[in-house]
Amino acid sequence: MAMNATALGQAISSAVEAKAKTEGATPTDIWTAVATEIINHITANAVVSTNVTTTVTTAVTTPAGAGTGTGSGVGTGTGTIS
Fold it and tell me: How does DSSP assign 1-69, residue by residue?
């Protein structure tokens, strides 16, 4: 599932209600429950995409007497972190 404000809001609401009913719950306990739900939602649903471009220069080893050479190239890679 993609990031979803309604689902996150429901999860936070449920966590806060449950924590608030706990005897001795402090404001810190409630905010920790909120933060936990936000982290859980991001961990479960976020997709981060990135594009990377790199330049590579290579040296060519050739047999004796055949001369030397170099080459270069540019490559692009795309990946997804999920």
Answer: ----HHHHHHHHHHHHHHHHTSTT--HHHHHHHHHHHHHHHHHHH--EEEEEEEEEEEEE---TTS--E
Instruction: Answer yes or no: are the C-beta atoms of 39 and 64 closer than 8 Å.
Output: no
Decide if 46 contacts 23 (C-beta within 8 A): no
Task: pLDDT tens for the chain, 82 residues: list them.
Answer: 788 999 999 999 999 999 999 999 999 999 999 999 999 999 999 877 777 777 666 666 666 666 555 566 666 666 665 5
C-alpha 49, offset from chain centre: 8
Q: What CA–CA distance (Å, rounded) separates 26 from 18?
A: 13
Structure tokens at 15: 């966590």
